């Protein structure tokens, strides 16, 4: 699993982890039925607290993307729908725009200018 976090990102770490996992599921890196590595392993690879990873995993479970099974770990139950992926990417784009001093309305104008 190759997940990365942006330490300059203003979003909480658990949201970044959830977004990275959501993208990996939506893009097919993880298929329904696949097991994820343990939260401690993910946390160790990212250099963050395991509770942060667990918070992200619980959020994805609540979205219906993951299933927790005692003794079997966490597995993928479904694919992220297109809208969920677009919402995630739109949030990331808006966060990036804000870092450069642009607001939501500025971003709308930029999008409207695209062919």
TrEMBL record:
The UniProt GO MF terms for this protein read: DNA binding; DNA-binding transcription factor activity
Q: Which residues form the signal peptide?
A: none
Name the residues that span the membrane. none
Q: Which UniProt key words apply to this protein? A: DNA-binding, Transcription, Transcription regulation
Return the InterPro entries for the record. Answer: Tscrpt_reg_HTH_GntR, WH-like_DNA-bd_sf, WH_DNA-bd_sf
Gene3D superfamilies linked: Winged helix-like DNA-binding domain superfamily/Winged helix DNA-binding domain (1.10.10.10)
Matching Pfam families: GntR (PF00392)
Protein name per UniProt? GntR family transcriptional regulator
Task: List, for all copies, the residue spans of the domain called HTH gntR-type.
Answer: 11-79
